[in-house]
Amino acid sequence: MKILVCISNVPDTTTKIKFLEGNNKLDTAGIQWVINPWDELSLTRALELKDDASTGVKSVTVAHVGSAASEPTIRKALAIGADDAIRVNMDATDAYNVATQLAEVLKKEQFDIVLCGIESSDYNGSLVGGMLSEMLGMPSVSAVSGINIANGEVVLTREIDGGKEVVTVPSPFVAVVQKGIAKEPRIAAMRGIMMARTKPIKICEPVECENLTEIVTFEKPEPRAKCRFVDAENPKQLVELLMNEAKVI
Amino acid sequence: MSVLVFTENWDGRFKKLTFELVSYAAKTAEMLNTTATAVSIGKVDDAELKKLGSYGAKKIIAIENEKLNILDNQAYSALIADLAKEEGAQVVVLSNNNTGKAIAPRLSVRLKAGIGSGVSRLPLSLEPFTVYKRTYSGNAFAHQVIKTPVKIVTLAQNSFDLTETSDSSVIERRQVTVDGEILKTTVKDVQKQTGKILLTDADVVVSGGRGMKSPDNWAPIVELAQALGAATACSRPVSDEGWRPHEEHTGQTGKIIAPNLYIAVGISGATQHLAGISSSKYIVAINTDKDAPIFEAAQYGIVGDAMKVLPGVIAAVKELRK
Ligand SMILES: Cc1cc2nc3c(=O)[nH]c(=O)nc-3n(C[C@H](O)[C@H](O)[C@H](O)COP(=O)(O)OP(=O)(O)OC[C@H]3O[C@@H](n4cnc5c(N)ncnc54)[C@H](O)[C@@H]3O)c2cc1C
Ligand SMILES: Nc1ncnc2c1ncn2[C@@H]1O[C@H](COP(=O)(O)O)[C@@H](O)[C@H]1O
User: Fold this and answer.
1) Closest C-alpha among A203, A212, A194 to residue A97
2) Hey, whose CA ends up nearest to atom 18 of ligand 1?
3) Each residue's pLDDT tens digit, B268-281
4) Which is the most buried residue in A150, B86, B154, B160, by most CB within 10 A?
5) pLDDT tens for residues A32-46?
6) What is the complex's ipTM, to 2 decimals?
């Protein structure tokens, strides 16, 4: 069995987001780029499955649509333990376009399980995984918080309102994963970092595809009103404010 | 021409988020000089369907087919895409919840329609069609142009006010055939909790962080939530430690919620935590550290020890809300 983990490259989650003049481009100065948190967790889970010989998982590949600038992110994924990587050489700006490129990759090479994260923490699209599955006519399962393989069958847990469902779909399929899929992201050990240098990254040129959307401006959220402090000895005042001023209880 | 809105039901009932969606679709339709059509899949009675009309749906297409009793992403998307074509939909509206996230991207491919996801305002302009959406985990909002003839919008929960109308609506019950071939999802087991207020539905949320010190100290959080009819939540370290169940974890990697009131107790207010709660209408913080970043996000705050402050808050709620 072969697993493909789609990874996006996002600003470190503590980054103070600023835009360039004109407010249509992120100011990338000083930004640390990291593997999108969910993708890091899917990679971790994929590697756990591979470590367990009973699952029959033979390889874990990562795929990324991005320019050469994101190569450190791919190397990091290889250092964590992915066997090899595929990069489509294109700036990712539109989910449909990214999904189209990943679909091309999957037309050329077969994988049994394709993992995507629930959202990229930059554009917060929640789109690529679903689009990709539709383009390939593959089943997809969303909100996946668990993936297990027993007797060659892949069993997924998906979150529903107020609970969970245990589901199966025929392979190959796309699982769109979220919290719970793995506990802590696996970190690269020294040996992994050394080995990553020699692991193959296949570079593909993008296929022609139009962007269906375009971000024209960014704006920062409106600043919130300053905090009004209530004396710790007078909690009743807080409740009164919530009832009479904010009118939320 | 129309605006099509997918209205999910839960055991035959709609939720507030459904009515927000329909209100949003009706207003968008008004901007486009057309009307909103709601699509309901599942067993829903006429009285419940009528409610969609009272929030502005002119036509309500109701489909019941037992093959659709479980959510199969492919089957649902295929059906909604066909209806969108039949109805000549220019805009298709879904929720930005789990179900919407499962269907909308597939719909996008079927209809070759660009998506604005996590939208929280009406279209900013029609030509070009521009939506206002959350980006960078709530640290910025984008004006995004959707360039395709058909547009898909997924609406963020609790971001749009309900608008009621007394206009008439029609319910159209339709039979559809679902090709068994397309159904790929088998459900082997379901585990559901009942009787608990769901975090994603709650208007008020009481949340505890590492400042609560121990899982044994959670009683006042739960009691305050009960007194307020609120759901309980927590920060990530709290769920990682197993002090509270994982479903309660809010933040960038947990649940993203937008209640009317979020009460953060013993939570420092890390950016990753704020990413999940910053769309709350009001935030209250209770924290021993007056410099904790949570106070920058909060509108009301108490500097003090949670275990000393909470009993007084609970008593005041019980007294004043009698
Ligand atoms: C990739 C990534 C993703 C993450 N995603 C999330 C996420 O989704 N959600 C999330 O919550 N975190 C997330 N985190 C973790 C986040 O960075 C913080 O570590 C976390 O939010 C801190 O939790 P806390 O506020 O409960 O604990 P702390 O930061 O330890 O804060 C405890 C607070 O309690 C106060 N306190 C102490 N004693 C008392 C008392 N007696 N009474 C009242 N107050 C008291 C302290 O002053 C302090 O402000 C993520 C981190 C990373 C790297
Ligand atoms: N540029 C990219 N390259 C590879 N995978 C991506 C890329 N962008 C998004 N993805 C995948 O799609 C998921 C959801 O991203 P999004 O739809 O952008 O919110 C991510 O968690 C990744 O698994």
Assistant:
1) A212
2) B270
3) 999 999 999 999 99
4) B154
5) 999 999 999 999 999
6) 0.95
Is B144 within 8 Å of chain A by CB? Answer: yes
pLDDT digits (tens, 9 = 90+) for B39-88: 999 999 999 999 999 999 999 999 999 999 999 999 999 999 999 999 99
Provide CB contacts within 8 A for B117, sequence distance 6+.
Answer: A124, A125, A126, A127, B96, B101, B104, B133, B153, B154
Mutation choice for ligand 1 from B210, B243, B278, B308, CB with most ligand atoms inside 8 A: B210
Share of chain A above pLDDT 90, in %: 93
Give the residue ranges of chain B where pLDDT is below 70.
none
Tell me, rounded to whole angstroms, the distance of Cα B22 from its chain centroid: 13
Residue-level pLDDT at B321 = 83
- Please tell me the distance in Å from A136's CA to the nearest CA on chain B: 10
Q: Are A173 and A113 in contact (CB under 8 A)?
A: yes
The rounded percent of chain A whose pLDDT value lies above 70 is 100
CA–CA dist B322, B319 (Å, integer): 6
Question: Where do the domains of chain A lie?
Answer: 2-218
| Contact call for residues B147 and B128 (beta carbons, < 8 A) | yes
- A-proximal residues of B, 249-268, CB under 8 Å: 249, 252-254, 260-261
C-alpha–C-alpha distance, residues B152 and B6, integer Å: 11
CB-CB contact of B85 with B93 (8 Å): no
Name the burial class of residue B271, with classes exposed (0-12), middle (13-18) and buried (19+) by CB atoms within 10 angstroms of its CB.
buried
Claim to verify: residue B204 and residue B90 sit in the same structural domain: no
In a domain, B192, yes or no: no
Alpha helices (runs of H) in chain B, residue ranges in sequence order: 16-31, 46-54, 73-86, 98-111, 219-228, 236-240, 271-277, 294-297, 306-320
pLDDT for res B322? 76
> How many domains does chain B fold into?
2
Q: Is residue B190 a part of any domain in this protein?
A: no
B96 touches chain A (CB under 8 A): yes
DSSP 8-state symbol, B214: S
Are B29 and B177 in a shared domain? yes
Q: Please indicate, yes or no, whether residues B176 and B63 belong to a single structural domain of this protein.
A: yes
Ramachandran class of A223: left when φ > 0, alpha when ψ lies in -120 to 50, beta otherwise: beta
Domain-embedded: residue B33:
yes
Chain A to chain B, count of Cβ pairs less than 8 Å apart? Answer: 270
C-alpha pair distances (Å), B320 with each of A235, B57, B270: 12, 39, 33
Looking at CATH, the fold of the domain delimited by A2-218 is given as: Rossmann fold (3.40.50)
Mutate to test the interface with B, among A39, A227, A233, A241 (most CBs of B within 10 A): A227
Tell whether B93 and B242 lie within a shared domain.
no
Domain membership of residue B36 as a residue range: 2-182
B287 close to ligand 1 (CB < 6 Angstrom): yes
